[in-house]
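Incident log, structure service

09:12 report received: a user says their structure output differs between two submissions of the same chain.
09:20 pulled the input from the user's history:
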Amino acid sequence: MVLPLVINPLRSIDRLPALLPVYVLVISLVVLAQLPASAQRLNAQEAATLAYQALPQLPREDQYSRVAGAQRDAGSTLLQRLIRYHQLSKSRSLYYRLDWKLTLADYLGSNEVINEDIYPGADTLTRNPLEGDRAAIRRLSRAQRNQLVQTLTEIFTQADGRTISPAGAASTGPSTGGTTGPANGSSSSSQPNRPPQPRPGDARLLLGP
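09:34 re-ran on a clean worker, output below:
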């Protein structure tokens, strides 16, 4: 004879507080497992390293020293700080050219004001790097700024397993050396050239030497 399994509901409720951390951990692991592995490990410094490999002519601005130990912080570069400002300070998308153009416009003084007190490196370096970073961005030519926008867009879209869409992403605007042409060797006649749609701030951003 098989005895029925009887579950005491009161006993189960008493055990919920002890099991709650386990449930939270399991749910967190499930959510993390669904994220692309590359998106979990690509941080600002790694993305900046990739960008410098693609654009070695860009200034590094890594001459600043740490407050702790007074040693030169070679990992704190212009692009590392720019990416951190873009992603953490402004919470802008990593996947669209327009968002990167807005960030460059901040540095050029033609968009939003950058708060120097919370700028990356302000509290960890012996000297706030904001003014030097602004000057470095201003010295870039229009072509170099376009290349930077293109490169950063491609780094994050490819790392996250996304495709570069024409709607505001890397395939819009003039080509700067990226792979934005027809794929799989298809003829350009099957890919009609459509002029990019103007966006707010584009004209001001592209002004410069």
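09:41 both user submissions now match this output. Likely a transient worker issue. Closing.
09:42 reviewer note: The radius of gyration is 24 Å. The mean pLDDT is 76.
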